[in-house]
Amino acid sequence: MSEIIINSEIALQSAIGELRDTWAKHKFVRMILRAKTRSLDQNALAAVWYAQMAREDRQYDALGHKSYCKLVHGVPLLRAEDAEFRERYDSLILRRFSYEEKLELMRWFPVTSLMSVDQLSRYLEAVRDDYSKRGVHLEFPDDTKRRAA
Q1: Are residues 44 and 29 in the same domain?
Q2: Domain count along the chain
Q3: Which candidate, 140, 144, 114, places its Cα nearest to that of 41?
Q4: What is the model's pTM?
């Protein structure tokens, strides 16, 4: 299985050519189309939050909090909405590893990088709600602007 990223007219033309060649050879093609997956603002916000979590809740460092969030909030979201992810996660990880081992695996297993902008928004909201219950108050940039007004 190959992955093709189309981000220009030339890349689109190459992808169409690849599709035609694969169809001609196999007479079967399975396509999964995904639009732009994440925004830079969401990525930056998540990084700031993981650092804040580490400063306020010393159970983990920033990478540990990221791993926890990916496992507890990201994995269930993707398992519910992405059949390919669910198949991969369930066959490779679900029943083979302990909770602690899964946390360690989250350091490299892709979760949030596979999310759409909408999925990542819901993930960030779930993370904020979780940490709010622990006394770690994570804010979206709009929250700060509203309070200042």
Answers
A1: no
A2: 2
A3: 140
A4: 0.71
* Amino acid at the residue 78: L
Q: What letter does residue 109 receive in the DSSP assignment?
A: S
User: Does residue 147 register a pLDDT over 50?
Assistant: no
Q: Give the containing element (helix H, strand E) for 11.
A: helix 9-26
- CA-to-CA distance for 90 and 88, rounded, in angstroms? 6
Q: What angle do CA 118, 61, 145 make, to 5 degrees?
A: 45
pLDDT of residue 32: 79
Q: With a cut of 50, say whether residue 8 has pLDDT above it.
A: yes
Domain of residue 8 covers 1-33
In 49-135, DSSP assigns E strands to: none
Half-sphere exposure of 71 (CA within 13 A, CB side): 20
What pLDDT, in 10s, does the model give residues 38-84? 566 888 899 999 999 999 999 999 999 999 999 999 999 999 999 99
